[in-house]
Amino acid sequence: MFRMDETDFADKQAAYRALDAQAGALLAGESDPVANAANLAALIFHQLPGLNWAGFYFLKEGELVVGPFQGRPACVRIAMGRGVCGSAAAGRKTIVVDDVDDFPGHIPCDAASRSEIVIPLIRSDGVLLGVLDLDSPHRARFDADDASGLECLAGRYVGSLED
Ligand code: SME
What we know:
The protein has a six-stranded antiparallel beta sheet, with helices on both faces. The protein has one domain (8-162): 2-Layer Sandwich (Beta-Lactamase). With 163 residues, the protein is an alpha+beta fold. The protein is built from four helices and six strands; from the N terminus they run H-H-E-E-E-H-E-E-E-H. The longest helix has 18 residues, at 144-161. A hairpin with a 5-residue loop joins strand 5 (115-122) and strand 6 (128-136). Helix 1 (12-27) runs antiparallel to helix 2 (33-47) and helix 1 runs parallel beside helix 4. The structure holds methionine sulfoxide. The site of methionine sulfoxide (SME) has 15 residues, from helix 3 and strand 6. Methionine sulfoxide (SME) binds next to helix 3 and strand 6.
């Protein structure tokens, strides 16, 4: 089980509240989808410990296409229902994978990735925009606090587009 650095991240929920405030400031007054995705991916990647990839896939003509991210180059297109990203998108639900080797159909982009969390991006009118995807080289890096904190950030991203 991955442990946050205790001095910096003793209280994960408080850390996510701080991150949410930073995200709010970063996205304030801007509604460009690429600009906001790029800044949010960079914020998440540099503020959350234990990640090797953080970024976006956008739904385009029925498949997920990679968007702004931080980390090693990733696979460009993922079909709906395929891999962790396509499964989270098709099911419209966050998926937390403790060990990618245990997820049938996981699509390896960086061999270092051990665990993964994918959050669907759903607009207030119900339209699926894509997913937010985080990878970690640590097994079981993501838990329920990460899921709720990242769902909040994903909601903030989607909300920023409607400003
Ligand atoms: N592992 C993902 C593919 C995207 S990369 O992790 C960046 C998946 O199985 O959908």
